[in-house]
């Protein structure tokens, strides 16, 4: 993703922090083609099931066969594990997205700010703010949602050189930010989400965030482990998502915090910045399939890595990308191909255990790296396809 968008997320929270600060002072606790069919022979008869064929040099004849996920109520993982980022503390936006697709979903992702004040204030605002009438914070939906909180791994730092990042990560490990992390963990628990998914130090594999791992992998791992231990001291049921990016994450396996500290292997996937030809007239790829094929190897790596570590996978941010004033080119635009392929990829994953889909939350907010809203007027064809395959009762 672009640096512009990376910076905008935390800044967009500050307005809310100011609003919530006055209220919060009196509060104590506060994201193809049809698959072949495979058969196997029981004692009598033949059982058939949808399956995918993959390549693996270690497998017999260089291929492996994977039976596809069984459907639940006629739907696969892509439908059943869908959620949204609807914007900051935007409960009404979340329920509007559910109305848009015609059914309730299970997962919502939110973002915490990058310094002590904005981290604590933003999470309080997302979860516990009762100033609105009726109350609109996500505490009101805690009976049916899994909450995914995105938590910076360093606080009050902006430097992105290797030395600055290493020092900031070491400060986290040394306990400099424990008070704020403890507040956030208690907000989650108090708001009715003691089993929340915590997305610590997300997109660690680039160099745009002050907690980025490249060149500081040992410090990243130690800081991640420290924050996990702190959150678990508040609720042992929190789960933790190690979240990277296509084309970068496969190069940063040295930053894996370890099986004891990670529950989910996440990857953020946007239809943008592919190294393929872009058509300025249609404002999309000249060959959308070629663009998808630049993402696919990373998705395969993520699945295989997760299987090898017996972890589920996630797509905490995934979305179409359309042109706007900040991103005038090199986006997929109104791509039915991207929507269909993401759906089919998620449905092709293992049914359970390692490599299965934990959740996939569509990023439904426009930003510096393009327009993303699926329920606006940016993507008429892709939006229709989205509703067709992700929607319905």
Keywords:
alpha/beta; 8-stranded parallel β-barrel; 10 helices; 14 strands; 35% helix; globular
Q: Would you kindly provide a brief summary of this structure?
A:
This protein starts with a helix and ends with a helix. The protein has 10 helices and 14 strands.
Structure notes:
This protein has 393 residues and is α/β, with parallel strands linked by helices. It is 35% helix and 17% strand. An eight-stranded parallel barrel has the order 4-5-6-7-8-9-13-14, surrounded by four helices. Helix 7 (217-234) links the parallel strand 7 and strand 8. Mean pLDDT is 86; it is low at 1-52, 54-60 and 63-70.
What topology does this entry show?
Blueprint: H1 3-24, E1 37-40, E2 47-55, E3 63-67, H2 77-80, E4 82-85, H3 91-101, E5 107-111, H4 116-127, E6 146-151, H5 162-173, H6 178-190, E7 197-200, H7 217-234, E8 239-244, E9 264-267, E10 269-270, E11 278-279, E12 284-285, H8 288-308, E13 312-319, H9 336-347, E14 357-363, H10 380-390
Parallel strand pairs: 4-5, 4-14, 5-6, 6-7, 7-8, 8-9, 9-13, 10-13, 13-14
Antiparallel strand pairs: 1-2, 2-3, 11-12
């Amino acid at each position: 993703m672009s640096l512009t968008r990376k910076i905008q997320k935390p800044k967009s929270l500050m307005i809310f922090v100011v609003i919530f600060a006055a209220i919060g002072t009196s509060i104590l606790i506060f994201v193809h083609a049809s698959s072949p069919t495979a058969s196997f022979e029981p004692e009598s008869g033949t059982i058939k099931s949808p399956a995918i064929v993959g390549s693996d040099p270690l497998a017999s004849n260089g291929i492996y066969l994977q039976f596809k996920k069984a459907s639940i109520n006629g739907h696969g993982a892509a439908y059943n594990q869908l959620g949204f980022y609807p914007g900051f503390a935007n409960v009404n936006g979340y329920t509007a997205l559910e109305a848009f697709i015609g059914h309730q979903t299970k997962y919502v992702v939110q973002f915490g700010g990058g310094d002590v004040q904005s981290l604590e204030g933003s999470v309080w605002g997302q979860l516990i703010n009762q100033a609105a009438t009726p109350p609109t914070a996500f505490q009101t939906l805690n009976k049916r949602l899994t909450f995914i909180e995105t938590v910076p791994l360093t606080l009050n730092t902006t430097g992105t050189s290797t030395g600055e990042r290493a020092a900031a990560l070491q400060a986290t490990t040394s306990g400099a930010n424990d008070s704020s992390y403890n507040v956030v963990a208690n907000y989650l628990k108090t708001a009715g989400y003691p089993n929340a998914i915590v997305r610590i130090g997300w997109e660690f594999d680039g160099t745009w965030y002050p907690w980025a791992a490249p060149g500081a992998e040992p410090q990243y791992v130690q800081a991640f482990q420290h924050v996990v231990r702190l959150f678990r001291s508040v609720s042992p049921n929190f789960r933790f998502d190690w979240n990277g990016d296509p084309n970068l994450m496969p190069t940063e396996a040295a930053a894996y915090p370890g099986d004891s500290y990670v529950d989910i292997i996440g990857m953020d996937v946007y239809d943008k910045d592919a190294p393929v030809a872009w058509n300025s007239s249609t404002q999309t790829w000249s060959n959308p399939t070629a663009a998808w094929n630049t993402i696919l190897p990373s998705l395969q790596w993520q699945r295989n890595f997760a299987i090898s570590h017996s972890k589920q996978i996630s797509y905490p941010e995934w979305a179409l990308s359309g042109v706007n004033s900040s991103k005038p080119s090199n986006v997929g635009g109104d791509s039915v191909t991207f929507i269909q392929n993401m759906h089919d990829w998620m449905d092709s994953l293992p049914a359970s255990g390692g490599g299965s889909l934990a959740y996939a939350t569509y990023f439904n907010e426009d930003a510096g790296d393009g327009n993303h809203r699926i329920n606006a007027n940016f993507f008429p064809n892709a939006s229709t396809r989205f509703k067709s395959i992700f929607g319905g009762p």
